[in-house]
Amino acid sequence: MASGHSGKDVEINSIDSESKHMHSDSSQAADARLDKRGIPLVPQPTSDPLDPLNWSLWLKILVLLQVSLLAFLALFSASLIVSTHKPPELEAYLGYKLTPNHQTPAFQPLSKSLHKDLTETAYVTSVFIAFVGASSLFWNPIANVYGRRPIYIISISIAIATSAASGASSTYGELIAFRALNGFFGGVALGLGSATVTDLFFEHERGFYMGIYTLSLITGGHIAPIAGGYIVKNTLTWHWCFYIPAIITAFMLPLFVFTVPETLYSHSADRVQRPYGSWMENMTMRGKAHSTRSLKLIDFFRPIQMLMYPSVLLPTLYYSVSFGYGSILFIITSANIFLKVYKYKPYQTGVLLGVPLTVGSVLGELVAGGLSDWISEKRALARSGVRKPEDRLLALFPAIVLLPLGIIIEGVCLTHKLHAIGTGFGIAIASFGLQIATTVVYTYTAECYRQQAAEIGSLLNFGRQIFGFCVGFYAVKLGTEVGFQSAWITFAFINFALSLPVLALIFVGEKWRHAMGQPGFHRDL
């Protein structure tokens, strides 16, 4: 495999370390390598061609795209059958009993096939979401010792089998069990992906490439309603909602095995030896990726330990709520509300929901990653090359305004039965803001604590999945009781309120980080 220093705007130069101030996490060696603007690279790459920071750009992109596709498939699989509860409050709001044609794509046929009521059938999706949230808490500590590559390969293999088994299930118990296993194995990339991006790219380019990953992650759940609606329209059975992800993932497995090397690599000054001695050892996974490390029970509780740091806790809370109200809220309420307001069939609901969500995410990412990197680089130049993670939070301002604004617009349009274009416009604006928030939060937290990127990825994944899981239990009920306009405005203000502490980090985040110091674990990464 080709090697050589790469990455967007990177070139190799040497300068005396005293001529430039460097980020606190960067190398203090006499000769520092610079980007093309003359700012020291962070982290400093080694001279080892197996160092992922030294890989050719095409190889980095190949790895990034495959990990991103795995993250896409995880939420795509979760949302392809969108399950919603059918509480009495909703039927009271609608004014009549819900019929099979009133359900979200493929959900009612599933309920009928399993001989279960709609509430019990909803657990098919709920259990998947819950196990996706918990999966990274288990797998990421193992990946920090034995490497990312074996964890990905194992999880992909079992995810294929459990997704196919879900489609072939004939009883409720079988389906619940296989969906739980599929979430546990299929959701690995949702927690480990951000750490993989951190392994591959320098700080000054990380916003752009992290954005590719987060865009894939989010749009999986956004495109799924469109596909699910047309599965129903074209008379495919609910089984195909599980077979399709299994088939796509099966095509990925051999490509992943033969083209994705191990990315775990130590850049600590006191590293005893490099993880692998050759490309062959890397690809054949001989031994642990980090031979001086061992797995300890405390490693599984490290994500909880990271919550003591405000630069992790506050963005995690904000992002979890942002995802819940900027994506999940629309997905779980759209089918029944769009039926009442617009008399939409399932496939029409899928289009009105999926298209604005996807378009908003894509347009948001055109702004998010590049803007974040540009702000970080410009402000670093003004400080003679000193980068500060808090600079990236300046790119969050559009999200703070647009995400709650989009939620409010949809609530107003639904309450007053305005044209569907207005509803779609509100969804797209919220999705635009959510994408910016996602990329900025992932990039900022990883830049604050690069060596703990896996733990932070676990927290963000857990918070997103669990809060999104909870939204389904109260959103529709609150909307039917107080009106959807009032309920949606309430959600918007909760989201806005949680953004304020994150903005405060722009002014006090650096001070707090220095006062608390770096975590005492993973210093050898």
From TrEMBL:
What membrane topology is given?
A: Multi-pass membrane protein
Regions of compositional bias (Basic and acidic residues) in chain numbering: 1-24
Q: Where are the transmembrane segments?
A: 57-82, 121-139, 151-168, 180-202, 208-228, 240-260, 317-339, 393-412, 418-444, 456-476, 488-508
Spell out the GO cellular component terms annotated for this protein, sorted alphabetically and separated by semicolons: plasma membrane
Sorted keywords for this record are: Membrane, Transmembrane, Transmembrane helix
Q: Where is this region: Disordered?
A: 1-29
Domain Major facilitator superfamily (MFS) profile residues, every copy: 63-513
Predominant cellular place of this UniProt entry's protein? membrane
Superkingdom classification of source: Eukaryota
The record's section on Pfam families has: MFS_1
The molecular function GO annotations come to:
transmembrane transporter activity
As for subcellular location, the record says: Membrane
Listed name of the protein: Major facilitator superfamily (MFS) profile domain-containing protein
Native organism is Imshaugia aleurites
